[in-house]
Amino acid sequence: MYAFSRAVNSMHSEDIKLLMKQSSGEGLISFAGGMPNNDLFPVAEIDEIYNNLDDDIKKLCFQYGPTTGYPPLVRSLQNLMLRKGLPAKSDKILVTTGSLQAISIITQEFVNEGDIILAENPCFVGAISVFETYGAKIIGIPIDKEGIDIEALEKVIASLKSPPKFLYITPNFHNPAGILYTEQRRRALLKVLSGTDIILIEDDAYGDLFFDSKDQPLTKPLKSYKGYDVDIIYTGSFSKILGPGFRLGYMLSSPEIFEKAESIKQALDACTSNFMQILATEFIERGYLRPYLDFLRIEYRERKDILQRSLKKHMPKGIKWVEPQGGFYMWLSLPDQVMATALFKDCLKQGLVFVTGRTFDPENVNDDHLRLSFSNMPKEDIEKGVILLSQVIRGHLKEFETLEPSKQNQ
Ligand SMILES: Cc1ncc(COP(=O)(O)O)c(C=O)c1O
User: Which of 27, 49, 243, 245 minimizes the number of CB atoms within 10 Å of its CB?
Assistant: First the structure.
């Protein structure tokens, strides 16, 4: 028997392993993985970029770099962030190996075992797993179609003897719920947190993937709002735009938080791959990012539209969802009688997978939702998948209706 540390006991990391396996099974119709589309990656542009690099820069690709990030990438990021209204001059940017590393660094920086942190319920499972690994006690706050439930948040904050270390949110095209916080909800949240010493972690992994340019102003980061006394750490990622294979993310924080984060990163991996940072810098600086994002928005919107149409056409009554304005996900709410985990087992037998809502519940209990990811679906499979799913759901509804009334109420 090994004397493993308690960090290995994160229940959600088992869910993630399963999720990764299920996302890529041969012959499956998979709504499971929250990943960009394999066929949309900018392979030709990256080929061209690498082949045209000066030899000196090519050699740099193979070398270690500064822990805080490849300076030209930090400058490019600074410009992109300034355009979003973020305080990228007074605050500091740390390049990380994926934004999950940023979440991990922030958690190491602030959380001792048993500390309380607040997160949305549902919440990105990768973040839950990090929080569990560092022994945080996670309190989930419900969300609705406009954002976090302010009343519930206030109640939780008022009930706590010691303040939580931070609140983690994904306001733009939430994973898994697909929602976009309204401006009103953003302001209400900032008002509640103002002056409380509760740090806000704003995870903006999907903000650039709005489907309609008129929605772009709605993705304005909370960290760019003026007039509130809230310490916000903003995190972002290249995973959903350039590709997760880059393992490139970043965080923007106060200089004090940045300094400690740099030390933690130094101990973790010394630096993020120079290779990937150089390719990403060139991609931005040669002006490829903007047209590529326009292209992605069209492609993902088409998949969302097909899914939306198919769901409307085939889903039985009682299944509810909010049509997303960007991102990768549709979050289906099931009637009381239907359990997502039971559905999953039956769908798997038919070669269809998705992720059960329980995976995204910090308590790992809610079984009344499922996440459909449309991003990496071949367009022609989407309706087929929805038909299969609706048939299985109808089967479960019928099974329920044939139960004796006493059993229905259990
Ligand atoms: C909300 C959210 N944040 C962060 C990440 C992690 O991204 P990265 O690949 O940059 O670590 C994901 C990936 O699915 C995500 O959905």
Answer: 27
Q: Are 214 and 326 in contact (CB under 8 A)?
A: no
Task: Give residue 100 CA to ligand 1 midpoint distance, Å.
Answer: 6
Q: Report the atom number in ligand 1 closest to the C-alpha of 100.
A: 11
Ligand 1 neighbours by CB, cut-off 6 Å: 34, 98-100, 124, 126, 170, 175, 203, 205, 237, 239, 244, 249
Beta carbons of 124 and 172 less than 8 angstroms apart = no
CB 373 within 8 A of CB 31: yes
Distance 410 CA to ligand 1 centre (A): 38
CA of 145 to the centre of ligand 1 (A): 21
> Residue 235: inside a domain, yes or no?
yes
Same domain, 312 and 238: no
Does 1 fall in a domain? no
For the stretch 154-192, pLDDT in tens is: 999 999 998 999 999 999 999 999 999 999 999 999 999
Q: How far is the CA of 13 from the centre of ligand 1 (A)?
A: 14
> Which residues constitute the domain of residue 311?
6-41+291-397
Kindly write down the DSSP assignment for every residue of 26-39, as one continuous string.
TT-EE-------GG
Is the distance from CB of 360 to CB of 35 less than 8 angstroms? no
- pLDDT tens, 313-361? 999 999 999 999 999 999 999 998 899 999 999 999 999 999 999 999 9
3 three-state secondary structure: coil
Nearest CA to ligand 1 atom 12: 205
Q: What percent of the chain has pLDDT over 90?
A: 87
Tell me whether residue 407 is in a domain.
Answer: no
* Number of domains composing the chain: 2
Q: From the CB of residue 269, how many other CB atoms can be counted at a distance below 10 Å? A: 13
